[in-house]
Amino acid sequence: MRVYLPLLVDELAEVRAAGRLPARQAHGVTGALRADDPRADEEDLEFEAMCQALDAARALGRGRRVVAAADTSTREDAGDGALLDGADPLPLSEVVSFHVEEGSGDVGTGYDDLLWYDVTELDGLVSAVAP
Fold it and tell me: What is the pTM of this model?
């Protein structure tokens, strides 16, 4: 199952050092998301789940938001939008990519301005965003 975890850019160095994403509630394509837009295709539903994860990242604090995309075991719906049950840390081996906002934005913004990085580019990404 593809899941999307909210992060802040300042957390990426710790992600790299720990070799895992922090324990955090993920977002994904849920029954609730499908019910909200029954005509949407899988790609549109995944984009909506990623956008909801980006919005959730704002609650983590100030700074540029990041969404980590990972392929992991199936998780149950939490019953609200794209939220999934559970908050287990995910190993980097399950991460596929990082989507980093170009500038620090507010909830409801930045969806079309995400920079895509393959997980193999994490070292370069951490170096690029280091203060």
Answer: 0.93
